[in-house]
Amino acid sequence: MTTNDSIIAMEQIRKVYDTGKVQVEALRGIDLEISKGEFVAIVGPSGSGKSTLMNLIGCLDTPTSGVYRLTGQLVAGMKKDELATVRNRRVGFIFQNFNLLPQISAYENVEMPLLFGGVPRRERRRRVEALMERVGLADRMEHKPTELSGGQMQRVAVARALAMDPDILLADEPTGNLDTSSGGDIMELFQDLWEQGGTMLVITHDPALARRARRQVEIQDGLITRDTGSPGADSTPLR
Questions:
Q1: Strands, E, within the chain: which ranges?
Q2: Each residue's pLDDT tens digit in the chain (239 positions)?
Q3: Nearest Cα to Cα of residue 201 among 76, 29, 33, 28
Q4: Structural domain spans, the chain
Q5: Which residue, 64, 101, 24, 53, is CA-closest to 204?
Q6: Phi-psi label, residue 35: left if phi above 0, alpha if psi -120 to 50, beta otherwise
Q7: Does pTM top 0.85 for this prediction?
Q8: Contact assessment for residue 201 and residue 57, using Cβ atoms and an 8 Å cutoff
Q9: Cβ(87)–Cβ(58) under 8 Å?
Q10: Distances, alpha carbon 129 to alpha carbons 52, 132, 137, 209, in Å
Q11: What are the b/e assignments for 40-79, b being 16+ CB within 10 Å?
């Protein structure tokens, strides 16, 4: 049942890929509700449907059937420009490969969603500087991604994801390309963001990162096989 503070509400979500010769059912009836202020890790083996689910949650793809509401708004039937607005304003994406533009500075990478969102120049500068301070890179704003370490690039990606003050941060294997130390720093950053009131959804193979989450949802063969919490449950951090 969908509650008033649900950010994500999915009912019987199916996703079928038609390869021309065979149909592949990636998701086989997903029911998932995530409320404001939760920290949820989605785990499961390769090919389980985690990435497909992430793409649907982030409105990068649409389900074959089922009902999906994001912050109470029905996603089905949205036009391409409406979906683009949702992706820019409501979901902050963090990817394994950082997805930073190498030819521009860290400042400009963080500023980009604000440009697309039509935010005035003075407000853009205020937000970017505050975000770079928040992720501990105030002294690296003019550096290009190629001049930063992997951990620093991921911090820039986190700042960019936060730029439009999204309803939810959606991270796909955010520590996958980092060494142990840098991965630990990113986990600490996620923990801090959540404790400051953020809503976090992390798709991960990393058991250490998954343990940071208050709730773990396991997917196998396109189905949720385990869910350690319920929406709105007590949010005591697991350290």
A1: 6-18, 23-35, 39-43, 65-70, 73-74, 91-95, 168-172, 200-203, 215-220, 223-227
A2: 455 688 999 999 999 998 888 999 999 999 999 999 999 999 998 889 999 999 999 999 889 999 999 989 899 888 888 888 888 889 999 998 999 999 999 999 999 999 999 999 999 999 999 999 999 999 999 999 999 999 999 999 999 999 999 999 999 999 888 988 998 899 899 999 999 998 999 998 888 889 889 999 999 999 999 999 754 444 444 44
A3: 33
A4: 101-165
A5: 53
A6: beta
A7: yes
A8: yes
A9: yes
A10: 34, 5, 9, 28
A11: bbbbbeeebbbbbbbbbbbbebebbebebbbeeeebeebe
What single letter denotes the amino acid at residue 99?
Answer: N
Starting at the edge strand that comes first in sequence, how are the strands of the sheet with 168-172 ordered?
91-95, 168-172, 200-203, 39-43, 215-220, 223-227
